[in-house]
Amino acid sequence: MDEITLEDVLDLTLGAGVLATGGGGEPFVPRLMVEEALRRHGPVPVVRPGELDPEGLLLPLAVFGAPTAFAEKFFNGSEALIALRALERQLGRKGVGVMPVEVGGGSTLLPVAAAAELGLPIVDADTMRRAFPRGELTQFNLAGIPASPIVLVDPAGNTVVVQATDNVMAERLARAATTEMGMIAVGALYPVTARQADEFAIHGSLTYCVEIGRRIRAIQDGEPDAYRISWISPTAASCSPARSWTSTAGRRAAGHAARSPSRTWTTRTEHCGSTSRTRT
Amino acid sequence: MTTKPNLRIGIDVGGTNTDAVVVDSSGTVRARHKAPTTPAVFDGVRAALEAVLSAVDGSAIGQVMLGTTHPLNAIIRRSGLGRVGVLRIGAPATLSVPPLAGWPNDLVAALRGPAAIVRGGHEYSGVECGPLDEAAILDFAKQCEGAVDAIAVTAMSSPINPAHERRAAELLREVLGRDIAVTESRDVGGIGLLERENSAILNSALVGVGRHVVESLLQALAHHEMTPDVYLTQNDGTLLTVEEAIRRPVLTIGSGPTNSMRGAAYLTGLTDAVVMDVGGTSTDVGLLVNGFPRESALAVEIGGVRTNYRMPDLIAVGLGGGTIVTDENGMRIGPDSVGYRLAGEAIVFGGSTLTLSDVSVAAGRSTIGEREYLSRLDRGLVRRALESIDGRFAALADRIKASRGPQPLVAVGGGAHLVPDRIEGIDMVHRHEHADVANAIGAAIAEASGSVDRTFSYDEGGRAYCLEQARELAVEQAVRAGADPVRVRITALTEVPMSYMPGTSVRVQAKAVGPLLPPSRDAGHG
To answer: Where is the stretch described as Disordered (chain A) (predicted)?
Structure first.
């Protein structure tokens, strides 16, 4: 997948709904946000972290707040720019791309809209490959990367920068600030360099998400063989042995931190293997 | 001398047929009529009234209930819609998605007037986000002058705190006068700003259609020198007074399938069953739970627009009495249908198109028309067609069922004869002599309702107290809508805890339903 266009948004939304895994909110409003942003600014380029300036700043974005609040109050579209400028100032690095912290629910779609608004590419990666309930449940956390500084921006433009001593505290402080913001904010957390993302992020997450959506739609449309693993669309092209889902470094980082995540990686690697086999 | 007005007329205008019934206070069907829906819809309604009133004493009619596809058709055909000014209160939040985003272009073209997003609105907690920008509202009102038929106003969190929405509507009425209808979003939708805004816009666009429906019905009744209490049925199968129907026509938009299912429950006395409503063109399959249709958990789209109405959870397929059967290069059944032309085009009625009704007659499931016209019909073809539709009905029953055990099924609608007597997973297929007018019966027996959808904090007063408040509010609304205070009951109460919210915030939805108070001639027409 080289870019995300208006035509991809439905599949991305369907996939995000699955990867929301029961949480993550209803992606209806975020979907419209992405469509509006793409209509105004054109398609968003999709890149691998390794294609970007290794020392450039990535803006990993997520929606903070409660899905029920989001149903009434949502973003005006300028929050991500405020967050990016705040991080650039603080870290002395220039933003080179946007990344979803989680693929799953609205947090999958918000970064795509933000990338369109900022004129930056989006990185085909995330930090858990599903929605998760707390900010420290990420592969970056396992790799020892601090979530701070977290920048929270609400739709009125109020900005809070959280500088915490550890990632659990960062989450707690960010939640408290979000409550005062009306339970809805754009959050930029784990401000990593492209090099760190290349090493520790889970690669291919957006492609994976879109592929899930594409298959759901194929099933709904009654396409033959839609359930079979061998059914494959052109977008899965980025899933090849040469472009593995997870870098060895990422596996190493997880391996010493916890047992259970490595099991999911195995599954993912097998999934990748089987899809790529069918292509050859 | 007057007779006691103890009769009710139920009328259901569907895509294919217009049905009417007269039901007495014991629930017995005293008269019935079924005829194709006419191109000018009220011709059919007048004819239906004429027909049923020839069988009973008009002065004994106390109440008339109408369910109609008028508003839905107006949206689907994009015709007869008013031009709508759209005001959203919520800036600087929500600017990333403008009003009408995601709507079909032709529908937008048919109804879009000026649109503005102004400052104001409230947080989920009911606290004001910022002051209401009254100057911007007055600017918007000026743009609307002479340019719109109606206005839809939606304020952020208005179901929780209506202050800004109410004030904006007041200002608009002051500037534009009473002729421009103003829909306040919380009257037509719950939590979910965009869905509620969509409902408000559709409602505003339908104000003219709603008024036309009500006025035409009242005229038709006046022609018979009748002045009964008049109601329209709404999506959930309960009633709206005509005053409310004029104000909130969008709430009547999905009443057809609900009326059929409520009629099915009434005719059979079953409260939990699969219902198949087989019409001329399509079949709706739904599930009765506690006498009401199970509601869909998914958002409902109307004419391509997402709303947050609770609608019956239905599976619709293109199988009906008029469904066309062809046998060239393999058999094909539907989705094409002769629809309301069944009486002219089906073979049993002397026509030349093979329909499922012909198959049904050939198989002995129905006795409509002239069986001898089918003498040249290939028996193998009939057998294969039956096998195919029986398989599809069985699959439908299986899909809609919520539990593994056998359940009863009620077959209603003009094409109910198509449904086989034996279906796997169904212990009995119920039929009724009036099943073909179940929708009109559902309208005739409809009750009044009230509902609440609010966020409560259980930290304040505790859960029991909050739930009691929700129940009381729902009952109060039902009584205001005409329900008998003594017989009103709570039919649904759901609690959804809100994740990540501070304290114990719970969204509570309660619904109360009760039979109408008997019409009082003194109060109503004294």
So the answer is: 242-280
Of A54-58, B12-16, B313-317, the poorest mean pLDDT is in: B12-16
Cα separation of the two ends of chain A: 18
Query: Average model confidence (pLDDT) for chain A?
Result: 83
For residue A179, the chain B residues in CB contact (below 8 A) are 502
* Nearest residue of chain A to residue B192 (CA atoms): A71
- Distance, in Å, from the CA atom of B505 to the CA atom of B494, rounded to the nearest integer, reads 13
Question: Domain of A31?
Answer: 3-199
Sequence letter at residue B380 = G
Residue B117's DSSP bridge partners are B88
What is the torsional sign of CA B178, B181, B185, B188? positive
Dist. CA B353–CA B325, nearest whole Å: 8
Tell me the pLDDT tens digit for each residue of B27-48: 899 999 998 887 777 888 999 9
Contact at CB, A76 and B94, closer than 8 angstroms: yes
Which residues of chain A are within 8 Å of residue B498 when distances are taken between CB atoms?
66, 68
Quote the tokens at residue B189.
Answer: 């939708």
8 A C-beta contact, residue B449 and residue B481: yes
Q: In angstroms, rounded to a whole number, what is the distance separating the alpha carbons of residues B280 and A123?
A: 53
Cβ contact, residue pair A73, B102, below 8 Å: no
- Pick A71's closest partner by Cβ from B98, B193, B500: B193
Percent helix, strand, coil in chain A, to 5, is 50, 15, 35
Contacts of A155 in chain B (CB under 8 A): 92-95
Residue A255 touches partner B, C-beta closer than 8 Å:
no
pLDDT in tens, B337-380: 887 788 889 999 999 999 999 999 999 999 999 999 999 899 99
pLDDT band for A278, please (50, 70, 90 cuts).
very low
Q: Do B98 and A179 touch (CB under 8 A)?
A: no
User: Is there a contact between A4 and A44 (Cβ–Cβ < 8 Å)?
Assistant: yes
- For residues B526 and B524, give the distance between their C-alpha atoms in angstroms, rounded to a whole number: 6
User: B89-99 pLDDT, tens per residue?
Assistant: 999 999 999 99
CB pairs under 8 A between A and B: 97
Q: What is the structure's pLDDT at B337?
A: 87
- The string of pLDDT tens digits covering residues B96-126 is 999 999 999 999 999 999 999 999 999 988 8
Q: Given an 8 Å threshold on Cβ–Cβ distance, is B123 in contact with A73?
A: yes
A35 contacts on B by Cβ (under 8 Å): 101-102
CATH of domain B270-435: 3.30.420
Alpha helices in B188-296 (DSSP H): 193-223, 242-247, 255-268
Secondary-structure percent of chain B, ordered helix, strand, coil, rounded to 5: 35, 30, 35
Closest residue on chain B to A156 (Cα): B92
Is the CB of A75 inside 8 Å of chain B's CB atoms?
yes
Nearest CA in chain B to A65: B500
Question: Chain B residue closest to A30 (CA)?
Answer: B97
Most confident of A93-102, B17-26, B76-85, B122-131: A93-102
Give burial (CB, 10 Å; 0-12/13-18/19+) of B30: middle
Q: Which residues of B touch A69 (CB under 8 A)?
A: 123-124, 501
Q: Does A23 touch chain B (CB under 8 A)?
A: yes
Q: What is the number of structural domains in chain A?
A: 1
Domain borders along chain B are 79-202, 270-435, 447-525
Torsion angle in degrees (nearest 10) through CA of B158, B162, B167, B169: 60
DSSP-H helix ranges across B347-434: 356-362, 379-400
Assess if residue A273 is contained within a domain. Answer: no
Query: Which CATH number covers residue A193?
Result: 3.40.1610.10
Two structure tokens written together for A261: 């995540």
CB contact under 8 A, B194 and A68: no
